Amino acid sequence: MQQSSNHISPEKIALQAGNDLSMIESIPVRWHLRGCRECREELASARAAIQAFREEVLELPAGLDWNNLAAEMRANISVGLEAAQAIESYSRHELSVFDWRPAAAVAAITMVAGMGWYLSFHNANLINNPSVLLEANTTGTEWKHGDLSLSIKTRSEEGSFVDMNVKGVASARYVDSETGQVAITNVYVD
Questions:
Q1: Residue boundaries of the structural domains of the chain
Q2: How far apart are CA 171 and CA 161, in angstroms?
Q3: Cα–Cα distance between 128 and 168 in angstroms, integer?
Q4: In Å, what is the CA distance from 101 to each residue of 22, 107, 111, 135?
Q5: Calpha distance 53→44 (Å, rounded)
């Protein structure tokens, strides 16, 4: 049935027939039904369809033994309740044993991040001394402060690796090709 704009929509008629409209929504519908014969007939038809459906669904199949069905349902409910209790006791045991680990992991990560943040600012202030010079090259590392200096030299430039960073660390690594020994020198600014 095609509804004009003056009539109630089929969806609202179906909801009214099943008493599924809220009180506020049903007021204009009921007001319209008082004066519209066509919508009242649609509502009666929808209510008859709902009633026929309910009667068909509520009719039990022939030969159904209700007592056996009830006993089976009680057994299934009992098994379900026992399973729920077992899961609940297992869950409580799991929480009491493993509940601290996520909190410890978060605390450790927070502590490491906080220390890294603190040290990055703290060390940046320490090495802000323009009178200290660090130098690393393939012959070794050297620290100079005014007229004072400290040099650590390698045997040869061959097999040397140099590393510098902005945090005030100069490193030189030397691998002796004759003996295979490794010499590592690190110079830090404090």
A1: 10-58, 132-188
A2: 8
A3: 9
A4: 49, 10, 15, 46
A5: 14
Across 62-94, b (16+ Cβ under 10 Å) vs e yields: eeeeeeeeeeeeeeeeeeeeeeeeeeeeeeeee
Give 2's pLDDT tier (boundaries 50, 70, 90).
very low
Phi/psi for 112 (5° steps) reads -65, -45
Least confidently predicted of 35-44, 61-70, 156-165, 167-176:
156-165
Residue with tokens 């040869």: 156
What are the CA-CA distances from residue 70 to residues 10, 75, 76, 155, 190 (Å)?
40, 9, 10, 94, 84
* Average pLDDT across the chain, whole number: 78
> Residue 161: in which H helix or E strand, if any?
strand 160-165
Exposed e or buried b for every residue in 155-165, given b needs 16+ CB within 10 A? eeeebbebebe
Tokens of 98: 């493993």
Each residue's pLDDT tens digit, 115-170: 887 777 655 554 555 666 767 666 777 777 778 777 777 766 666 666 666 566 77
What's the token pair of residue 95? Answer: 């929480």
What residue type is 61 in one-letter code? P
